[in-house]
Predict the 3D structure of the following.
Amino acid sequence: MKYSDINDIEKATRVSRREMARFGFALLFIIAVMLIVDGMHLVEGHNNLLLVVAAMIGGYMALNIGANDVANNVGPAVGARAITLTGAIIIAAIFESAGAIIAGGEVVTTIKNGIIDPKQITDVELYIYAMLAALLAAAIWLNLATAMGAPVSTTHSIVGAVLGAGVAAGGWHIVNWSSMGAIAASWVVSPLLGGLIAALFLFWIKRSITYQTDMVQAAKKMVPILVALMAWSFTTYLALKGLNKLIKLSTLEASLIGLVVAVVVYLLVRAAVSNNASSLQNTKDSINGLFTIPLIFAAALLSFAHGANDVANAIGPLAAIYDALANNTISTKAGIPLWIMLIGALGISIGLLLFGPKLIKTVGSEITELDQIRAFAIAMSAALTVIVAAELGMPVSSTHIAVGAVLGVGFLREYLKTNYAQAIQVIREHHDAIDADKTALDAYMQRFEKASFEDKRLMLQQLKERAAEIELSKKERKSLNKIYKKELVKRSIMLKIFAAWIITVPASAFLAAFIYFAIRGMMAS
């Protein structure tokens, strides 16, 4: 065999070796969880084996949350090249773990969102089987979604799984259908609200800074306001969602704390931007650089809040199983021992390190192209949407919000590009009809490029008033609109994600019901 052939074989097997290494590290984590829990002897006899199995599945669930859900927090910053993929993974792993351990809470609701009434399942053993089935089904579905490259809601995965296992164990009557209706409504509300807020924020930034003739001067005025608003929204967001298990604050109290932080941040950022203004160029790339540091902070804070809240998706059913095994009773709430919290925190971080890059790339670069300003609008949307939804009492998914925000930014870019192409066509039509001098056209185009948003609109209005519109047939106009239209959102990725969202709850529910009956059958035999 030639040396070149050996090199070709090495290259061909490199990817598979990496995948096997990732799988091996994940397996080592799960085995370590099993051995440690078994050695702790927390419950006696047969119950100890059930607890070891539950801990194994809880660790597997945590790995999959890290692989799939954390991408929403850091993906836009990576896609905008504000931070490297490695840096983002390290930051997210640290702050996810910190959020879970520091602010994850000492008590979690055993049944997420109260979708079933656990007291309707009178047999403790059947309840434990149902929770095992729900945990495993949700983890398997998240694993499949990650393999497909589709960011899905871990909350919806566990909700669907608990629904399916609960119905299998206790019948349809134990389901809280009003809670399920609210969750179903959030499938639509979350991405729409996230997309709308992100698009509005991006348009505001464009009009107030990048569409201005003197972008540097505009940035000196607006960037401190934007970053201060970000500080207010993230402080409020963390107070309401990230620290709510440590201290209970109303929306007004959290907002006032956020306002104080925002004022301090405004003064600091205004001084920093003024000092650096002389080194800035009057270009969009130069202005983009001002949003790099705020994006890094946003990724860290979103990861902290996510760890504080979504760790319950991994450890809630595990805590319920442990409580039922230890006390031989079914509770609607269960205490969380430190060992369970550590399984959730470490599992999420390890899952992110091993399998997170795939979904980070999907959210950050495969849906639409991002820069720092666009990623900033997405981060703002993630925080503001949660605050608005919390005030309105709506359950929302952080995954749906983040992906909806990315889509909102992408569709706004499509709209603006189309309008700009149509504006250029108006200019060319005018000069073709009135002034065939190419020099005059080039000079006008240069003036138009440099003009502010308001000046551009005024120039176009004047052109239309001075020249009769060239008559085009309806078919010709439709053809031109197709030429103007630029698809900046990848429809294939968008449709794949939407399809995964739609089937998440039913898929995890059917899978959980199947696993429940399988477990019950095995235990009966």
